[in-house]
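Notes from the 1:1 (GR / supervisor)

We went over the backlog. Supervisor wanted to see one worked example end to end before approving the batch request, so GR pasted a single chain during the call. The sequence is below; no edits were made to it. Supervisor asked that the structure be written out right there so they could see what the output format looks like.
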Amino acid sequence: MGMLSTDQRAFAERAESVAAEFADDAYTWDGDPPWANLRRLAEEGLYCPSIDEAYGGQGRSDVAALLLTEAVGRECPDTGWFTYMQSVVGPRAIDLFGSEAVKEAYLPDVTAGESFVSIAISEPAAGSDVASMTTEVTEEGGQLVCNGEKTWVGGVPFGDAAVTWVRFPEGLGSVVIPYDDPGVEIEEVYTNMAGYAQTHFTIDDVVVPESHVLTRGEDAFKEQLVALNWERLGSSVLTVAWAEAALELALAYASEREQFGHPIGDFQGIEWKLAEMYRQVETAAALVYQAAAGAAGHGQPPSRLQTSTAKLHCSRMVEAVVSEAVQIVGARAYQQGHPLEYLYRLARGRRIAAGTDEMQLNTVARALKDDGLPAVSER
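Structure output shown during the call:
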């Protein structure tokens, strides 16, 4: 990738070297956290690279987090998901907006590969329509008290806390809610298509210390919304990694499997499939890193237009590429337990998680109507 700096390339090469160690255990985690892999990344000074050095990160840019997620997710899809979630989602919000006390309470264990912090946004009656959420924080007797419920939250069974989006009297904001608070009740744990747990929990009169308030007030929450663009790029690059894994599996099978006296990869029909899959993967990667490079170059988070375009394209791309890989491998890939069967189930979730396809289409259209096409100088 010609757009990487010398330092970024060196970081990516180190990430690839360590990630190669995860190949033998890939596709075996069955919903369990790959703690050993996460600790290995931490030992090598790679894990959570964009988190502040004071809390165990490397203080690098968010681009490094994208590079790590791609390198790791290509070898082990599960470790890639954890890398994404802890590099650019919940813990990153704490790093960006949290008090010294809340950073010290949660980030060192996360960056050591020993803990997990979730993000809790959706509610039973509020998914994409974030403005309709009812989980609220009110002031009672000089304290902040939270009540409400959240659902589809990932990582709760093995996590310590959630960055929780709430409604303050003056508008939306976010706080950190620990799971071990007596007022947090696990109502139901669902198992999604990929075998991961997603949890519905209620929050009943949980006292929120001022130190656990991340964003409050219109301007502060707008900053968090803008920072969320990095999460969407993280989700996008994760799909690139999974698509690359699928393409590699398809390439290997096509070169080994013989029919009619020839490897099936020699037939033009299969060659065209492989070429088309690569075109889609590379187009997706270019969208992600172009958005990330533009943000880094302008010293601000990625734009909503570029981010939503990348997220939309990548979420659709990975489903299509994995599906074609299944088609190439055939009946073997259609069996439970095959890596491509698992990748197919993982891939489908990306069109829902981190913002649905429909929400990304709305965002792209509104950005175009508001701002028009970007100028050449803005690339």
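Supervisor's comment: The CA atoms of residues 327 and 333 lie 8 Å apart.
Batch request approved.
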